[in-house]
Specification:
Rossmann fold, 129 residues, five-stranded parallel sheet, alpha/beta
Length: 129
């Protein structure tokens, strides 16, 4: 019998400085079946990645306070943790393909919840194979 995919073995790290938007994103990721961690800036996100080896998806906003914005964080994560899939979102910043790390996904805010869940399910299927 084929083993079914268990997304609970993998985690999503949501990085968003707005507490309400962060809570909604965490709910979406959990609805997709993933363990979810959260951070309010890039510095917290790096610490979470260092602590939790099960993080396989970074879902980050572009604009946030601190030493790095979401795009700098996305590139840092791509360099240091290559297996992590990068998902970037923004409501104000226009993000082009050249701004994103390789294989990164961009979602404009307000992003469609079903689109995020579908992307997470697609990522989960790729991790499994």
């Amino acid at each position: 019998m084929a083993q079914s995919f268990n997304p609970n073995r993998y985690a999503v790290l949501v990085v968003e400085d707005d507490a309400l938007v962060r809570a909604e994103a965490v709910d979406l990721c959990e609805e997709a079946g993933f363990t979810t961690y959260e951070a309010k800036n890039a510095d917290q996100a790096i610490r979470m990645l260092e602590r939790h080896s099960d993080i396989r998806v970074l879902f980050t906003d572009v604009e946030m306070p601190g030493t790095m914005d979401g795009l700098k964080l996305a590139h840092a994560v791509r360099d240091r943790w290559p297996p992590v899939t990068i998902m970037v979102t923004s409501g104000r910043v226009q993000v082009g393909k050249d701004d994103m790390p390789e294989n990164g996904l961009f979602f404009a805010k307000p992003y469609p919840p079903r689109g995020i869940i579908k992307a997470l399910n697609d990522i989960a299927a790729q991790i499994q194979s």
